[in-house]
Amino acid sequence: LEASKLSGGVPIVADVTASSAVQDRYRGWLSQGISVVAANKGIFAGPESTYKNLLASASSPPRARLLHETTVGAGLPVLGTLSGLTASSHSIVSVEGILSGTLAFVLGAVAGGRQSLSEAVREAQARGYTEPDPRDDLNGMDVARKAVILARVAGMEGVELGGMAIESLVPEKLRDVSVEDFIDGLSDYDASFAERVSKVEKTGGRLHYAAKVDVEAGKVDVGPLAVEVREILEILEDLIEKKIFRYLTIFKKLSFLEASHPFNNAGPDNMVAITTNYYPRPLVVQGAGAGGDVTATGVLADILKCIH
Hints:
3-stranded parallel β-sheet, single chain, alpha/beta
């Protein structure tokens, strides 16, 4: 703070730790006019009362900013976009997000029966996509924390981590065993999970692990989400009826799929789809949602916002 006064600069603290002790100092820094840029999601997904007190400190004199874009999608401009929409008279209807690269990989690998659940998890672990204990990814808690943050920035109140519906992909009997026993025992659940995936796909859907913030219903869910897929033939038949295409036989051999929900185009990326009263067709933010480089760019972007 003294150095900034002497140089005429802007005092900023960037928290890239996972420490609650550092976050305990946020209010004190803000009350002194020191802006805080955080990549540490703890306090933003913690008790609502603590979160509201933090916002109150940020909005009280002296002027300071509290920015935490990277707590949801690393460098992706998700929270800034959501804040901008609410500030410009949009009413948020829902926010849906694929917020875990690990879970996106696993659900993509099991689609169409290409791999079993245990095979997909083993491959994700071998590629370095998972935490040392894959259950830390598969339990959905990191996605749930991000969902709390999205819900609060979207304007929802009363959202607490403990009151949310969170579906873990870790079988209950494997939650307290060693990592090795978890990996070895996961194959016992391959058949039931494959049946679940197949059931969704038979109805024309695709399974993704996602967070759904339903602002209008006041509800937040985290877990496998089935979204619709339409065959391209159906779309072409629609076009033919409208006399855009005259010769159906040319197109009948095509068997590609058209992703009628944005999630079906996500691939390994993180993706957030925001539906508002002005955007009934969702506004989509997509890209890499993890990694040191992209997180660093997100932190830098927030620092620059504080300066300007």
